[in-house]
Amino acid sequence: MRVIADVLRCRKGKVLFLAPTKPLVEQHAAFLGQNLLNKKVAMMTGEKKPQERQELWAGNDVIVSTPQVIANDLKNKRIDLAGFGLVIFDEAHRAVGKYSYVPVAEAYRSSGGLVLGMTASPGASKDKIMEVCTNLGIRNIEVRSKGDPDVVKYVHEVEIDWVKVEVPEQTKEVAAILRTLFDSYVQQLVKMGCMTSKRPATTIYLLEVNKTLQIRLHSGKNKGYMFRALSVQAMAVKVGHAIELAETQGLAALNSYMEKLRKEATSKKSSKASTAIVSSPEFEQAEVMLQGMKDEHPKIPQVMSIVSEQLQARPDSKIMVFTNYRDSCEMVAVNLSKIDGVKVSKLIGQTKRGEDRGLRQKEQVDVLASLRRGDINIVVATCVGEEGLDVANTDLVIFYEPVPSAIRSIQRRGRTGRSSPGRVVVLITIDTKDMASIYSSTRKENTMKKHLLKIQKELDKENGSNRKPAKSMAEGQRTITDY
């Protein structure tokens, strides 16, 4: 806000504020419209017609938009960035690959104007951070953490707890059968020379194998062999996912996924991978074992207990529960609705999956507005709730499972502790992928911080800076800020 006001006053140019989703654009536009005095603020999304967008572009001081709209209008020469003194990229870590931030920044680069990138999580590796900086034309980094003097008065303590649970015995038996099948596929890939037995057969490794096989396939050599290897790789990924669901999500999620595999195998467009899996003795044995099993995953009673205790201690609490999968999202929401005093809604993406049509962006915004008003007190969300959205003063955030991504872990935690102290609870199933995810996200987050400080020093040296107190952005350089 200060940067925008400073640029509008001192540089006399317009401001373009980009955010990755329509709900975020709406939030930013509403805030700026209420707080920028005597300045015209317009919101642009793909819902507005090109002619209308051109009129808004010409007649307003601040444009808040999704990047796809701007990139398309620039490409079609409906607009240009002449006269803009500042472009802001919210969630700047997205400025990689072919994402629309990249061509917009490229088009703006020759103007000599200011760039401000904002993100809580620029990337876990130095290469990723530098890619963001290069793509946006960033020449200076400002790193801030909750302990910095100019930040500390605006942040609140967030207590983080890890709650460990064990896989139920019956679930272990089902998972063991599926693991036998999984191991057989991995052994085939090792014999085919596509994998090495010296490296654990993780999902990441299997996805790397897929990329390598795709490259070899497109080279035109041994196509039949490559197709066979890709099919076995797909089998391993699917069965590995089934094991993960059993161990970290529960039998209901596993049952749903196995039914999906059987439907895939019997459909007109059935894949060889699904057909081979469901016809295997191990899959059939697991299906038989699942019949009549009613063991719920121990995470469910833990979530219910944590939520109940929170609401007993603070009846006006607002709570977010994050899950990786829609099936788990539904299951958690149903179980939480059984608790007295709970008013729960789901927050999921737009993509239709089977009978689940998803939520349009307006519906997503409405869910969060209901939480802010107090119409509901719990939101169970998939990844759509992680990034940037204004989720009110959330008192408690629960991770139904840890995530291996430092970016996603930081974003989830950032949903609490905004205007008052908060609490984060992470549920971990012992001796499962959950443990690896916790290790991975923690390691990546620590590495990210080290890389940021190192890159900051390198850029300071290039700029001849002695890291003196920051000047006004209107006098400064292109900057990426990490909060």
Annotation keywords:
483 residues, 49% helix, seven-stranded parallel β-sheet, 13 strands, 14% strand, alpha/beta
Structural commentary:
The protein has 483 residues and is an alpha/beta fold. Helices cover 49% and strands 14% of the residues. It contains 17 helices and 13 strands. The chain has helices at 2-10, 22-35, 50-59, 67-75, 101-109, 126-136, 169-191, 203-218, 223-248, 251-266, 272-278, 281-290, 299-313, 326-336, 361-373, 406-413, 433-463, and strands at residues 14-18, 41-44, 62-65, 84-90, 114-119, 140-143, 158-165, 319-322, 344-347, 378-381, 396-399, 422-429, 479-482. The strands form two sheets. The chain has a seven-stranded parallel β-sheet with strand order 2-3-1-4-5-13-6, sandwiched between helices. A six-stranded parallel β-sheet has the order 7-12-11-8-10-9, with helices on both faces. The longest helix has 31 residues, at 433-463. It starts with a helix and ends with a strand.
